[in-house]
Design brief:
This is DUF302 domain-containing protein. By secondary structure, the protein is α+β, with helices and mostly antiparallel strands. It contains 5 helices and 5 strands. Helix 1 crosses helix 5. The mean pLDDT is 97.
Length: 126
């Protein structure tokens, strides 16, 4: 797991990540805001947001390489508060796909790793 702390708030980090997603040509498939969802039921929780990221052409390539790997897409970046600090966590694509022991998926994972590194680089480290 690639995890780091940032001086940004969770919302600021998510905005930077979304910019990075746009720059790489990937897409935010879903933005799950746990804090906002908890507020809907009258609960207060520390920031906890997940960005699900992918693109249809990559999905088709993953399915062609290894249909069961479809379970693990879209890929995720988790932004959360822990002990008053904002953290960003991401299981890199090559790590996600390694479990399938597929050379074709390994190649896709390496290609996506480079894009995810660009996305994560948008968020400053503490």
């Amino acid at each position: 797991m690639n995890t780091f702390q940032t001086p940004l708030s969770a919302d600021e980090a998510v905005d930077k990540l979304k910019t990075g997603v746009e720059v790489t040509g990937l897409r935010v498939v879903a933005h799950i805001n746990g804090q906002a969802n908890a507020k809907l039921i009258g609960k207060e929780v520390p920031a906890d947001q997940i960005l699900e990221i992918f693109r249809p052409d990559f999905a088709i390539r993953v399915w062609d390489a290894c249909k069961p790997a479809g379970h693990d897409i879209p890929l995720r970046i988790h932004v959360y508060e822990d002990g008053g600090a904002t953290k960003v966590a991401c299981r890199m694509p090559s790590t996600v796909f390694a479990a399938f022991e597929s050379p074709a998926l390994d190649a896709i994972g390496a290609e996506l790793d480079a894009l995810f590194e660009q996305i994560l680089a948008q968020v400053p480290r503490a």
